[in-house]
Design brief:
By secondary structure, the protein is mostly helical. It has a domain of about 170 residues. It has 10 helices and no strands. The radius of gyration is 27 Å and the shape is flat. The N and C termini lie far apart (about 75 Å). The N terminus is likely disordered.
């Protein structure tokens, strides 16, 4: 007997498996549609917000009573503290000044953070999970937030608070903060380190390093453009997301380069330094 095949040439034995898969997909979709689109704010949301606020207020009240926060002496213009530290919530920016120029650490990067937060609703094309955030639906968004806030921002605040002593030198935990410590640091620019000596060569080498560090996700477009999520996102939204993500990743890259090779700038020009 001749073997019965489908139009595509596949054996008919595969048809039940395909039908079962399609049936499962339809059932899952019907289950999602059957879920309520709206729930009452009271008591579900308001009750949860009230309990959360109550717990946070209780913890902060007990914390403020149990832990003393003594004030320092009045400001004396004739005695500048060493080191002069900003409030803890600004120490991340002060720590970034070690690795970037002031215009970059104090203007460009904070502005990109604000702009990036504003454009999230416009560059995220995923319609599922609107109104709530689950890791299954927002793997990239949640992972990026945890990396940017917990790993980078909190780490910068920790470094500035506990590991930067007199002269803004780096001190390990438990190490004595010697106010007379003097460390000779010879910071060099990346183009000079790799052998570029002329201004033109340093400009070209620095521009190449800038493209690699700040625009590396764009080189992945030929590989990612066949992905379904890439087609859904589109080229423009992917480029914006890639630029913001690469800029965020450039901070730990610059920190590692400073710690290991004492690299001050990647790209040196007559107009700006990065």
């Amino acid at each position: 007997m001749a073997e019965v095949t489908t139009d595509a040439g596949a054996p008919a034995a595969d048809a039940p498996a395909a039908d079962a898969k399609a049936t499962t997909k339809v059932a899952k979709k019907a289950k999602e549609i059957a879920l309520p689109n709206r729930i009452h704010t009271w008591p579900y949301l308001v009750r949860l917000d009230f309990l959360t606020a109550l717990i946070v207020m209780t913890v902060m009240t007990v914390w403020s009573i149990a832990i003393d926060a003594p004030l320092e002496e009045p400001a004396n213009p004739n005695k500048t503290p060493n080191p002069s530290k900003a409030p803890w919530y600004f120490l991340g920016l002060q720590e970034m000044l070690v690795y970037f120029d002031p215009w970059m650490a104090g203007v460009v990067l904070p502005s990109l953070i604000i702009i990036g937060l504003m454009v999230i609703p416009y560059i995220d094309p995923n319609p599922r999970g609107n109104g709530y955030y689950t890791f299954a639906e927002r793997k990239f968004a949640i992972t990026t937030f945890l990396f940017g806030f917990i790993v980078l921002w909190v780490t910068l605040i920790f470094l500035g608070t506990f590991m930067r002593g007199p002269g803004w030198y780096f001190f390990w935990p438990g190490q004595y903060w010697d106010p007379h410590k003097s460390v000779a640091l010879t910071n060099v620019d990346f183009p000079y380190l790799v052998g570029a000596r002329t201004h033109a060569a340093q400009f070209m080498v620095g521009m190449g390093a800038f493209i690699v560090v700040f625009m590396w996700p764009l080189f992945l477009i030929p590989i990612l453009r066949k992905k379904e999520w890439f087609k859904q996102m589109g080229m423009l939204r992917f480029q914006i997301t890639a630029m913001l993500f690469a800029t965020m990743c450039a901070l730990p890259v610059k920190m590692i380069l400073r710690w290991t090779f004492n690299i001050k700038h990647l790209w040196v020009t007559p107009w700006f330094n990065i």
